[in-house]
């Protein structure tokens, strides 16, 4: 059986953030962000997938924010 | 909007179990799983937060299914022999119908997931098992003994026979195949060992 659900609030990115030191940047940027419900990064995966739950933030804004700090970040497709 | 396809969710679960059983936890990754399922990595991350989340959720679901299968038509008020017989039937049926799951749970038991794996899940199942043991001791059908001793006599022989069967041979290398006769003969010996 199929059900249609809205997953637009789950934002997924491929990054090169793969160690705890790099992850600290994400804590600084995302922990207290008013438009982010929660986030996590899977550093065990080769795509270092960053997963953000936000109902309002556009993907581009997150990509820009992370690129600006010298890390790769693009939409995971 | 995306379509949550229940068949796809089921496929992800089944393939994840297969990969972990065949390649171990070390070699298991979300990328590999997505490839095997022929879906995008992003789809996997919609369903699951990360690799740990996927492993823990699948394990929890499977433990629940196993617990339900084991307590099916079982009543903790049953007499010792009747209750244990039902347990053996259910446990054996579950193993035969889900041959991979034993290896899957073993992989997790010997990993860092052990704590997650053991904590909290199957609480209902454990309560029913504990109640049965308590009842049969209270009625004086078996002696009081630590749970580990009880379990080792009551169920370990069944699981060991299954191990011989899965390996296809006995300790000395002779071929071994489980039969109903072997199963229920062993059961009778277990009852004899425990019943007062």
UniProtKB/TrEMBL annotation, chain A:
Domain of life of the native organism: Bacteria
Family annotation (InterPro entries): HMA_dom_sf
Protein known as: HMA domain-containing protein
Lineage of the organism: Bacteria, Pseudomonadati, Bacteroidota, Sphingobacteriia, Sphingobacteriales
TrEMBL record, chain B:
Keywords: DNA-binding
InterPro entries: Homeodomain-like_sf, HTH-type_Tx_Regulator, HTH_TetR
Ranges of residues in domain HTH tetR-type: 6-66
Residue ranges flagged as DNA-binding region: 29-48
PANTHER family xref list: ACREF/ENVCD OPERON REPRESSOR-RELATED, ACREF_ENVCD OPERON REPRESSOR-RELATED
Protein's recorded name: AcrR family transcriptional regulator
Native species: Mucilaginibacter pocheonensis
